[in-house]
Write a structure and sequence with these properties.
mainly alpha; transmembrane helix; aminopeptidase; hydrolase
Length: 284
C-alpha cells in the first residue's frame, strides 16, 4: 500500500474510532483519535503531487486542526485531574467556579481562533484549484450568506441580557471563524473538484463554526450573569448540580454527531482539494 493511501485509510479508521468513543462518552479517547485523524489527513495532503501551494496550504490547515484537538485533549486531562473541586467556604467555592467558567471560555475562544486559522490556511489553496463557476458558485454563495444569517440569529438568541458590545468583543474569534468559513464556502463553488467534495467539507465546517459561535455566546452570557448579577435582584446566584445519569451510563449521540461533522468536514475538504489538484494536472 502506498503512503498516501495508507494515510487515508488511517484517517478513516481513526475518525471512526473517535466518533465511536464520543458516542460512548469516552472524551479523552475521542480527542486522542481525533488528533490521529487530523494528523493523518495533514500527511495525506502533504504527500499529494502537484502544486506546492495546494499541498502546503491544505496540509497546514489540517495540521492546525490537529494542534487544536491536541490542546483540547490536554485541557480535558487537566480538568479531569482537578475534578475534585475546592473544599472550603462558599466564597472559595464561588471563586473556583468563576475561574472554571473563565478557563472554559478561554478554551472555546482559542478553539475558535484555531478554526479560523485552519480554514484561512485551507483558503490559500483555493485559487490554485480549477475554476468551475456557473450554477454551483451561485449556490455556494447563497449558502454562505445563509451561514452568516444563521450565525447572526444564534447570537441574537443568546440567553439573558448581556451587554451587546461586550458580547461581540468576546465573540470575536468565533465570528471571525464563521466569516472566514462562509467566505471559503462561497469560493469553493467557483473553484473546486467536480464532485463538490470541497464544498461539502466547507458546509460541514460552516456548521461547526456557527455552533462554536452559539456555544461561546451562551457560555459567555452565563459567565457574565454569574459574575454580574442584577443589582435589584432578590435571588442570589447558585450552582447548578446535575442529578441525572452519571457520565458514561448513556450514549452521547450529540457529541458523536459533533465529532463526525467536524472530522468529516476536514476530511472532505482535504480529499476534495487533492481531487481538484489531480483534475488540474489532468488538464495540463
Amino acid at each position: 500500500m502506498r503512503l498516501p493511501s495508507g494515510l487515508g485509510v488511517a484517517a478513516v479508521v481513526a475518525g471512526l474510532l473517535s466518533v465511536g468513543a464520543a458516542l460512548l462518552a469516552m472524551r479523552e479517547a475521542s480527542l486522542l483519535w481525533a488528533v490521529v485523524t487530523l494528523a493523518a489527513l495533514a500527511g495525506h495532503a502533504l504527500t499529494a503531487s502537484g502544486t506546492p501551494r495546494v499541498r502546503w496550504g491544505v496540509a497546514a490547515g489540517a495540521g492546525v486542526f490537529a494542534l487544536v484537538a491536541a490542546a483540547n485533549l490536554l485541557w480535558h486531562r487537566e480538568r479531569v485531574a482537578d475534578a475534585g473541586g475546592p473544599r472550603g467556604s462558599q466564597a472559595a467555592t464561588r471563586t473556583y467556579f468563576v475561574e472554571s467558567l473563565r478557563e472554559g471560555l478561554d478554551q472555546q475562544r482559542l478553539t475558535a481562533w484555531g478554526l479560523a486559522l485552519g480554514v484561512l490556511l485551507l483558503s490559500v489553496a483555493v485559487p490554485a484549484l480549477p475554476a468551475r463557476g456557473g450554477r454551483r458558485g451561485v449556490v455556494t454563495t447563497v449558502l454562505a450568506v445563509a451561514v452568516l444569517v444563521w450565525c447572526g440569529l444564534s447570537v441574537a438568541a443568546t440567553p439573558g441580557d448581556p451587554p451587546l458590545p461586550e458580547l461581540l468583543l468576546a465573540l470575536q474569534p468565533a465570528l471571525l471563524a464563521a466569516l472566514v468559513t462562509a467566505g471559503v464556502l462561497a469560493w469553493s463553488g467557483w473553484r473546486g473538484d467536480r464532485r463538490g467534495l470541497l464544498t461539502a467539507g466547507m458546509v460541514l465546517l460552516a456548521v461547526v463554526a456557527v455552533r462554536a459561535c452559539a456555544d461561546l455566546a451562551s457560555a459567555w452570557a452565563g459567565w457574565w450573569t454569574f459574575v454580574e448579577p442584577a443589582r435589584d435582584a432578590f435571588l442570589q446566584p447558585g450552582f447548578m448540580v446535575s442529578v441525572g445519569a452519571s457520565p458514561g451510563s448513556a450514549l452521547e449521540v450529540s457529541s458523536a454527531v459533533e465529532t463526525a461533522v467536524a472530522l468529516g468536514g476536514v476530511g472532505l475538504a482535504v480529499v476534495g482539494a487533492r481531487r481538484a489538484l489531480r483534475e488540474t494536472e489532468g488538464r495540463g
